[in-house]
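User: Quick sanity check before I run a bigger batch. Here is a single chain. Can you write out its predicted 3D structure?
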Amino acid sequence: MRISPITPGSRPELAAIEAGITAERGRVSLLYQVLLNSPPLAQGWEQLLTAVRNRSNLPADLREMVILRVAVLNRAPYEFEAHVPHALKAGMSQDKIEALRDSGDMQLNTAFSGQERHVIRLTDTMTRDIDVPDDVFAEAKAHFSDQQMVDLVATIASYNMVSRFLSAFRIGH
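Assistant: Done. Predicted structure follows.
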């Protein structure tokens, strides 16, 4: 790890932020302990990621599939392992979780439905290529409302942020 995490409870001025993180997450994970080095960012990060994870209109299994896929593509094992329990709780099979560990092309993997393959393709494209061709967007859009598309794209973008933060600071590496 490249900077020191802040031990929860060690700085009274962070108590309110830590309480908010604990209320949403159940604990102050190592990721948030590092973020606490910048209290405004820790607080904003928590609000954004809480909205993405707990308040979006995207089905939980698809949300977790996206998070796991981004973690694999960005080589963020801490993120992947942290979300396996959430994926299982959301109803994702262990077979699908294991299939997502492969960083190769998922389009031919029969473990996934057509909708899931379109979500994976959008995730892969946004993560690897940044620019999303119209056909890739349209394939995903055929399965979702406008709000769900915003939630889907925000989930992909947000977890790219998370995984890149984890990798830069070597959290879980």
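Residues 72 and 121 are 14 Å apart (CA to CA).

User: Great, the batch can go ahead then.
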